[in-house]
C-alpha cells in the first residue's frame, strides 16, 4: 500500500493536501485543472519535493525523507530524460548501473530484452536524437522496465504523441506494469486516457488530492470539481 498520511505542501499561494491510500498493482489516473497540483503530487511521491507535514509510507515503510533514488518509484516524464550523448544501450544500462559502470554480459542481454519488449529491437546503438518521438517514449519505458520499481509515475508522458500512438503506448505501459506488478500513477489532461487506462482516479482540485474513486463511478457521477473541469 502507498499511503499519503496528512500530507501538506505549500509554495506561496499554492497549497496541496493529500490523505489517501493506493493499492499495489493498481492503475490510477491523476486528473484535474491546470495548476491544481497534479505534478506536485507526483513529485511528492517520487521525492523531488518534500512535504511540509505528513508522512509517505510504502508497504508500511516510512519513505518521507528518502531521496528519489532510494524510493520504490520509477518516473517517466514527457521529456523522456534520455542522455543525448549516449546511445540507447548505454542510456538503458544506467538503469542497472547508475554509476555508469560496464555491464556484465547478462545485464547487456537484459537491456536487449527490454528494447525488444518495447519494440526497439536492434536499435541499441542509436543515440536518442536519431529516434522519433514515439521511439524515444518507448526507450524511456524500457528504462522503467529495467528499473523494476513497484511504483511507476507518469507525468503526461505521451501528450505530444498522436492519438493512435498514444493508445499504443498506454497499452504498452499496461503490459509493462503488469509484468512488474507495479502500481501506476498517470497524470493526464485527457479524461479518455483515464477511462481507457485506469481503474481508479485521483482528482486534484481546490488544494486537495482526493482519495481514489473507481473511474466508471467518477465519470457517471462527477463531483462538482470534476464537472467544472470537464466543462459540464
Ligand atoms: N517551477 C515552478 N516554479 C514556481 N511555481 C511553480 C512551478 N511549477 C509549478 N508551479 C506552481 O505550482 C502549482 C502547482 O503546479 P503543478 O505543476 O503541480 O500543477 P498541475 O496540476 O500539474 O498543472 P498542469 O496541469 O498545468 O501541468 C501551480 O500554482 C504552479 O503555478
From TrEMBL:
It comes from the Bacteria. InterPro entries: AAA+_ATPase (IPR003593), ABC_SmlMolc_Importer (IPR050093), ABC_transporter-like_ATP-bd (IPR003439), ABC_transporter-like_CS (IPR017871), P-loop_NTPase (IPR027417). Gene3D superfamilies: P-loop containing nucleotide triphosphate hydrolases (3.40.50.300). Coiled coil: none annotated. It holds the Pfam family ABC_tran. The keyword Lipid metabolism does not apply. This is ABC thiamine transporter, ATPase subunit. PROSITE patterns: ABC_TRANSPORTER_1, ABC_TRANSPORTER_2. One of its GO terms (molecular function) is ATP hydrolysis activity. Keywords: ATP-binding, Cell inner membrane, Cell membrane, Membrane, Nucleotide-binding, Translocase, Transport. PANTHER family: SPERMIDINE/PUTRESCINE IMPORT ATP-BINDING PROTEIN POTA (PTHR42781), THIAMINE IMPORT ATP-BINDING PROTEIN THIQ (PTHR42781:SF1). Residues 2-231 form the ABC transporter domain.
Amino acid at each position: 500500500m502507498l499511503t499519503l498520511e496528512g500530507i501538506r505542501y505549500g509554495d506561496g499561494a499554492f497549497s496541496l493536501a493529500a490523505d489517501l491510500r493506493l493499492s499495489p498493482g493498481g492503475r490510477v489516473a491523476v486528473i484535474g485543472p491546470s495548476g491544481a497540483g497534479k505534478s506536485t503530487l507526483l513529485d511528492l511521491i517520487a521525492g523531488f519535493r518534500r512535504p511540509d507535514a505528513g508522512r509517505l509510507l510504502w508497504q508500511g515503510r516510512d519513505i518521507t525523507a528518502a531521496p528519489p533514488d532510494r524510493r520504490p518509484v520509477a518516473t517517466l516524464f514527457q521529456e523522456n530524460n534520455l542522455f543525448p550523448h549516449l546511445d540507447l544501450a548505454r542510456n538503458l544500462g544506467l538503469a542497472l548501473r547508475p554509476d555508469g559502470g560496464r555491464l556484465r554480459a547478462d545485464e547487456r542481454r537484459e537491456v536487449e530484452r527490454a528494447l525488444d519488449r518495447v519494440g526497439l529491437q536492434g536499435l541499441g546503438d542509436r543515440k536518442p536524437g536519431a529516434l522519433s518521438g514515439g521511439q524515444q517514449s518507448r526507450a524511456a519505458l524500457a528504462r522503467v522496465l529495467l528499473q523494476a520499481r513497484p511504483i511507476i509515475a507518469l507525468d503526461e508522458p505521451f501528450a505530444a504523441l498522436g492519438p493512435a500512438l498514444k493508445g499504443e503506448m498506454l497499452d504498452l505501459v499496461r503490459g509493462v506494469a503488469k509484468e512488474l506488478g507495479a502500481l501506476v500513477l498517470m497524470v493526464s489532461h485527457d479524461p479518455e486516457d483515464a477511462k481507457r487506462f485506469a481503474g481508479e482516479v485521483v482528482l486534484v482540485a481546490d488544494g486537495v488530492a482526493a482519495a481514489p474513486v473507481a473511474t466508471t463511478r467518477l465519470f457517471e457521477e462527477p463531483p462538482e470539481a470534476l464537472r467544472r473541469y470537464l466543462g459540464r
